[in-house]
Amino acid sequence: KKKVIRKTYQKLIKKLNNFTLEKSPDYSSNNNWMNVVRFKKSNKLNTENLVKYFYKHKIQVRPIWFLNHMQKPYKAYEKYKITNAKKIIDSCLCLPSSSNLKILEIKKICKLLENF
Q: Which pick of 27, 38, 45, 110 has the fewest CB atoms within 10 Å?
């Protein structure tokens, strides 16, 4: 079921100009637990605006969780300069990925992305 959800997202998001579905590295196998969309950041197109937009349409999306190395208890333990992680966090969103998700719901989510 999770593979079908991911493949549906891939097919639909591929058609959108400002969004891409994050890919799995070639050296790994995706368990399809979560689907993350990346967007071209602009004044209008940012994580906060997208979350509000989806909530207004009664769809729960989430930003990617806060980075460990930026949390107060762990700041002293960063072993090397992490530079790209913040950019990724600011331009990605976790899409609904429940195994109960229906194809029509995925289409609605992708249509909302397109219309944003």
A: 27
User: Which two structure tokens, joined as six digits, stand for 38?
Assistant: 């990346």
Q: Which residues pair with 32 in a beta bridge?
A: none
Tracing tokens 């207004």 back to the chain, one arrives at 56
Kindly list the distances between the CA atom of residue 78 and the CA atoms of 68, 74, 81, 85, in Å, as whole numbers in the listed order. 9, 7, 7, 13
pTM for the whole thing?
0.86
Structure-block tokens of residue 67: 């980075």
Q: Which amino acid does the sequence have at 91?
A: S
> So what's the pLDDT on residue 101?
96
Q: Are 91 and 40 in contact (CB under 8 A)?
A: yes
Q: Are 22 and 54 in contact (CB under 8 A)?
A: no
